[in-house]
DNA sequence: CGGTTCGACTAGGCGACATT
DNA sequence: AATGTCGCCTAGTCGAACCG
C-alpha cells in the first residue's frame, strides 16, 4: 500500500505538499499539483482513513440512527436515509447506520470517536435518548421534534401545520364532518412526536372552523384500514372529508371506501399525508400534503455539519407543508339550498 | 504508525525612492 | 530617463510537532 511519503517521493515534494494538494487547504502551483496528482494515480494511493482520523480528529463519518422496527414504513425511512447519505457524500462524508434496537450503539460509536456527528430519526416527544444525546461531544441533529428541544438541533416537517392544513382545506371546500385516519395505534401510543403533532393541529383547526373532527388510529393492513374506516363512519356517518396520515393504509382505505359505496371524491374527499410518489401511485392521483423526506434528511446533514464547523448554535427548523390538489378532493355541496 | 496542521523560510513581484 | 536597491507582501513549499 502506497503511503503519502511514497507519493511525495515520486512527485519530488514533501508529504505536507501532497496533503495540501489533497485537501485544497493551501494553494499549490499548477505544475506541482500535476506532478502530485500523477504520482497519486500512478501509485493508486488512497489516504489511510485511520491515520487521517488520528491526525485531524475527524472521521468524515456521520452516524445515523434509523428506526427499523415495527409500525414504521421502511420505504419512507429509506427516503430519509437517501437524503442523508446523498447530502453527506456531497460534503465528503460517509454514513454509519445504527438501528434503534441497538441500545448502547449510540454511546459506543460516539464515545469511541467513530463518527464526527450524529443524526437521529423518529424522535418521540419524551425520547429516552435525549439525555444521552445532550451529553455527547459530537453535535447531534434530530429528525423530529421532542417536547423539550432546548439545546438540541431539530428538523422536521411542521406536522402540526400539516394537521391544520388538512382540516382547513377540507373546511374551505365545504366539509363540516371530517376525520383524521392516523398512524398505527402503537405509534400513537408511543407518542411519536409527528403523530401527536398532526392530531394537535387537526384538532385546533377543527375547533377553529367549527368542524366535527373524528380521530382514529389505523393499522397499516387491509383489516386495520377497514376497521378504522368503519369506526369513523359508525361514529360519524355524515363524514365527507378524510385526512389520512398513514401511507401503508392508504390503498386499503381507498379500497374499503369503494366497498362501502363511498365514491372518492364525489361522496368523500380524501387528503393524504405522504410522499408525492406515494400519492401518485394510488388507484387515483391523491390530493396530498407532501412529506419531503429526502429534503429533510439533506437539511439534517447540512445542520449537523454546520454545527460541527461551529457556525450554528442549536436551532429548530420546521418545514412548512405544501398541499397539492389532485383527483381525490372536491367541493362538498350537500347543504346547497334550492 | 500515516496522516494533518502550523509556523517558518524562500523566491519573486511591486512600488517608492535614491543614484547614476 | 534609466537603473539600482530597499522594504514589504504573497504564493509556494518544507520540517517538525502532534494525534491515540
TrEMBL record:
Keywords, comma-separated and alphabetical: DNA-binding, Transcription, Transcription regulation
Domain HTH lacI-type: 2-56
This protein's record includes keyword Transcription regulation: yes
Keyword Transcription regulation recorded: yes
InterPro entries listed in its UniProt record: Cro/C1-type_HTH (IPR001387), HTH_LacI (IPR000843), LacI/GalR-like_sensor (IPR046335), Lambda_DNA-bd_dom_sf (IPR010982), Peripla_BP_I (IPR028082)
Domain HTH cro/C1-type, first and last residues per copy: 3-32
One GO MF term attached to the UniProt entry: DNA-binding transcription factor activity
Cross-referenced CDD domains: HTH_LacI
PROSITE patterns given in the database record: HTH_CROC1, HTH_LACI_1, HTH_LACI_2
PANTHER family attached to this UniProt entry: LACI-RELATED TRANSCRIPTIONAL REPRESSOR (PTHR30146), LACTOSE OPERON REPRESSOR (PTHR30146:SF153)
The protein's name: Transcriptional regulator, LacI family
